[in-house]
Amino acid sequence: MLEGVKVLDLCHVLGGPFAGQLLAQMGAEVIKVESPDGDYSRTVPPHWFEGDSSFFLSCNRGKKSVVLDLKHPEGKAALMDLVKAADAVIYGFAPDVPARLGIDHASLAKVNPRIVVGELIGLHDAPPFSKAPSFDLIVQAISGFMSLTGEAGRAPVRAGYQVADLAGGLYLALGTVGALFKALKSGQGSRVQVSLLDCQIAMLTWQAQNYFISGEVPRASGARHPMIAPSEVFQCADGAWLAISPTGEGFWKEFCKALGRPELATDARFCDAAARIANVDALAAVLGGIFATRAAGEWEELFFAARVPAGKVKHVGEAVDQPVARLRRMVESLPHPQTGQAMNFLGSVFKFAGSPVLGYPPRLGEHTNAVLAGLCGYTPERLAALAAGKAVMQA
Is the pTM of this model over 0.90? Predict the structure, then answer.
């Protein structure tokens, strides 16, 4: 889909690099431009494989690594030469940093009018918000997201993974693709900015719309859906949990049949959607007693056969090992380039003809010389001089 598109990924840690990996999964050539110290994610403990942090490995597949010191005039000049050959640049700096480094869209457009800049920020690009730190947990908190998680009346909880950072990466990749399409049609590049806070507020969708209409503030309700019943989790005989959501009258009737309790479908307390919500506690009590009689896996198989929406709550190991994940190639094994030791990685969500299998995440500076020679025409002598002056670094 993005074959032939060249993206310079100046991002670090998680959200931005995740966007870069998504672009690579869509076929773009993604060049990760790092400082001599490297992306901070390379140093995150506690798990390592052949010297690489699992955190770094998780979102940097399919990229080339080029090390440039942007504080060095020759390193900055090398970046501009790369910009001339690139289609897009993505980064996730504090809002004032790009202009200070001379890599804002206006500066880059002077050397390549077609260049697209995708910018990921935390909150807003003007004072007093531009200087505010905006880590994932804080964005989850101030966006309203955390107020909707956890059990009713209990302390709010964060999502089990960095939903603010990752959603920001998704939006950054989407915005960058949109700007690339515009540049293809118009011949002019543009800047697209994505705020982590904007992304989380946007994802409030129907909860926010309900608030706009009713003035009622949505609250946390655990796994129970506030508008649909039954739609929650139940503990089963083996201690595992089962999620069920037979939404709509058709699924509700099939659910009752599969449960072995067809009379529940016509019980006056549960006979339609409004009645089930009004009597949700009574319904949960009935269902809880039934589900406690069999193991979660048995219930899952029974409901799957009946085409009723239900599933065992799986831990991460079970999730990545389940047959459908393997069938969808959501787990891929790659050998380490130096040792040959195999390592599993998550696969791509994009399935299309010719979709690439991304290579192993790069070593720091692994492709510096090859990229600068191939895209910018640098000679071995010039590369040696840049390395001697510490403007660039090769692995």
Answer: yes
